[in-house]
């Protein structure tokens, strides 16, 4: 049976001129495509660049409002996602089952469970690709109630036949509900070799409704939880993953790496601790201060905090948020400092960005250097990471006020960012992400 399985996989990947590599390999890299990039199958050329950026910012603002919204004690006993349903910015290709069925799903460091839409569909949103059909996969199984994965749900839910059920309620009212299942996951690597991982836990969704759209077939959870893909593959990838995100206008894909391929090394690498806080989904860092030119602004929540205790971990690093968000009072200090250092008159902002300028007369040379001072590491931002090109000759400060702090993906562009869940550290290094393979 294994020989037949391998021959079949070789046949469907004939264009790659190779057979699948099993998960015992030490590392692999896959393509990561921004949902609005020209490389995305959902790219709409009729939508202007300004509209794309504005929509992305609005998604970030909506996402943040739910990240920091306290849960009510009366919430139903299901998996609660504090995010909205359509907030992910980057898509990755996955194949599920034997033989593999291909899907394009949101890769999200703010999600804890991977799920896709499945047949039979009781209630599904529209998606361009066919739904996953469990009956066509020889390796598909529904997990039993006593399984470790089912018990990691809070609380576990089971039917009369002792099969495990999952339900994800999103903060905007969207929902995914179905069977907590097991099947093989295949990742198509940039080397041309598919990597196959058996027995991956995921949600096979039979009811999925709300603010989902056809731009994704589900969610790949890369969050800091037991059910995330990263933790499930931990023995193979040693708890390591990394990404290198290119600017939206680039004609190459961003990269997402696992295992040995995810190791960030060489000159210029810096490391800072990752903190786990409740809920154990997000990756928290400790931001001590932000320098704007020669002015250093202490981040308020780090006052009188000199060791790794519960007060640390005051900012979330998030691949699914476009811009960086600060508490309102601190954001105002950042904005005022920018205004004092840029000898130009601001223009009216848009889409929640409050500080904007006309990009003329060598404006970019006037933008001050910005550095985020994390515990043990300094993240230097260039103009690309500081000022967001809104199109039409307008640049805006890519930061906004909110009720909490999030380090967004614009600040991470052209950085190789590595997560080591075993060592609980985040590494980063300035990199031309267009050259990553």
Automatic annotation (TrEMBL):
GO CC terms in record: extracellular region
GO molecular function: aspartic-type endopeptidase activity
Active site residues according to the UniProt entry: 108, 318
GO biological process entries: proteolysis
PROSITE patterns: ASP_PROTEASE, PEPTIDASE_A1
Signal peptide (UniProt feature, chain positions): 1-23
Assigned protein family: Belongs to the peptidase A1 family.
PANTHER family xref list: ASPARTIC PROTEINASE CDR1-LIKE, OS07G0603500 PROTEIN-RELATED
Protein name as catalogued: Aspartic proteinase nepenthesin-1
């Amino acid at each position: 049976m294994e020989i037949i399985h391998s021959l079949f996989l070789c046949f469907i990947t004939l264009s790659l001129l190779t057979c699948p590599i099993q998960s015992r390999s030490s590392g692999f890299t896959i393509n990561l495509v921004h949902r609005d990039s020209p490389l995305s199958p959902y790219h709409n050329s009729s939508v202007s660049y300004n509209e794309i950026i504005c929509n992305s910012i609005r998604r970030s603002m909506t996402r943040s409002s739910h990240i920091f919204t306290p849960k009510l004690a009366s919430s139903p006993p299901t998996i609660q996602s504090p995010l909205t349903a359509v907030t992910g910015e980057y898509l990755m290709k996955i194949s599920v089952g034997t033989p593999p069925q291909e899907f394009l799903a949101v890769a999200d460091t703010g999600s804890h469970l991977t799920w896709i839409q499945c047949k039979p569909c009781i209630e599904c949103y529209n998606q361009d690709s066919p739904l996953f059909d469990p009956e066509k996969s020889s390796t598909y199984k529904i997990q039993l109630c006593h399984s470790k994965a089912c018990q990691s749900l809070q609380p576990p839910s089971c039917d009369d036949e002792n099969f495990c059920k999952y339900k994800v309620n999103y903060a905007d009212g969207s929902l995914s509900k179905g069977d907590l299942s097991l099947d093989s996951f295949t990742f198509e690597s940039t080397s041309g070799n598919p990597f196959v991982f058996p027995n991956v836990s995921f949600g096979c969704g039979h009811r999925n409704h709300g603010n989902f759209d056809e731009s994704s077939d589900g969610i790949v959870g890369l969050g800091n939880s037991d059910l995330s893909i990263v933790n499930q593959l931990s023995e193979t990838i040693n708890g390591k993953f990394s990404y290198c995100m290119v600017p939206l206008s680039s004609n190459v894909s961003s990269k997402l790496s696992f295992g040995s391929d995810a190791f960030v090394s060489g000159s210029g690498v810096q490391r800072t601790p990752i903190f786990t806080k409740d809920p154990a989904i997000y990756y928290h860092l400790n931001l001590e201060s932000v320098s704007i030119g020669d002015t250093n602004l202490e981040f308020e929540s780090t006052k009188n905090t000199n060791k790794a205790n519960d007060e640390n971990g005051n900012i979330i690093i998030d691949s699914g948020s476009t811009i960086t968000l600060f508490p309102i009072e601190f954001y105002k200090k950042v904005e005022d400092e920018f205004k004092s250092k840029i000898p130009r008159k601001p223009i009216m902002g848009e889409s929640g960005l409050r500080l904007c300028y006309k990009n003329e007369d060598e404006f970019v040379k006037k933008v001050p250097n910005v550095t985020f001072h994390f515990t043990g590491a300094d993240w230097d931002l260039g103009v690309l990471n500081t000022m967001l090109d809104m199109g039409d000759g307008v640049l805006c400060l890519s930061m906004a006020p909110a009720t909490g702090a999030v380090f967004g993906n614009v600040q991470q562009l052209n950085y190789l960012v590595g997560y080591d869940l075993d060592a609980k550290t985040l590494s980063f290094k300035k990199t031309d992400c267009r050259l990553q393979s």
